[in-house]
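Below sits my pick:
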Amino acid sequence: MAGTRRKQPDKGTLRKSLYNKVAHDLGQRIVRGEYKPGALLPNEAECGQIYKVSRTAVREAVKMLSAKGLIQSRPKIGSRVEPRSSWNLLDRDVIGWYCVTVDFQSFAHDVQQIRFMIEPEAAALAALNRTPLQLTEIDEAYQAMAEGVDDEAAWNAADVKFHLAILNASGNGFIPPFGRVIESLLANLFSVTVAHLRNRLKVLPMHEAILVAIRARKPELARTAVRRLLTGTQKTIDQGGKLKAAALEAKSRQRKSAKISAKG
C-alpha cells in the first residue's frame, strides 16, 4: 500500500546478522585451511575494515568462534587458530563448514564410521523400546521415502527423518541429541549416495527391512538390517571414489597425450 512504511529490523537483529556474517566467513576460512592452526587472525581493526563492521560486531564474532573451539582469544595477543583436535565438530555451524570444504571421500569415511558405531545398536534398542507413536514416526518417514523415490530432495529429507526417528526411538536419552547434531552430516552424505534413482530403488527394501524388524520387536534382525544398509552405502561410496580416481587418471592421460601431440 502507498504510504506504508517498510518495517525496519531492530538493532539487535542487525548486529547479530553482522557478527554472524563475520563469524561464518572466518569459520569457513579456518576450516578450509586458509588460517592454519597457530596462525593469528586479523585484529579487530583489520577485521572491521575487511568486513565493513564495527569492532563490537568483530568481538561478538570472535566470541562465537571461540565457543566453537576454532580459536583462542587473548588480550594483547589476538585470536589464534586452535588445533583441529580442539574444534567442536559436533557444532552445527562447524559441521556445515566442514561438509563444504573437506574431500568427500574423507568426509564419507568419517561419517560411516560413526554410523556403524551407533545406528545398528540404536535400531536394536528401538526394536525393544519404541513406543507406538515412535513406530508411527519411523513408518511415516519410510512411506515418505517410498512416495518420493522419483524426487531426490523429498527422498533425502525423508531418509534423514527415518534414521533420526530410529535414534529417537532407542530409549537412550543420550542418543537423540547426537542424532540432531549429525543431521546435516546425514543430509550431505545422502545427497551423494542416493543421487541416482537406481540407488534409491535398491536401498528402499533395506529400509523396509529395518522398519519390519523394529515393528516386530526383533533387535537382532534390526541390528543386522542396519548393518546391511550401511554396508551397501559404503559400497556406493567406494565405487564413487574409484570412478572419480579413474576419471582423474583419464584426464591426466589426455593432458599427456595432448602435450606429446603438440611437441610432435
Notes: The longest helix spans residues 219-263. The domain at 103-255 is CATH 1.20.120.530 (Four Helix Bundle (Hemerythrin (Met), subunit A)). The chain has eleven helices and two strands.
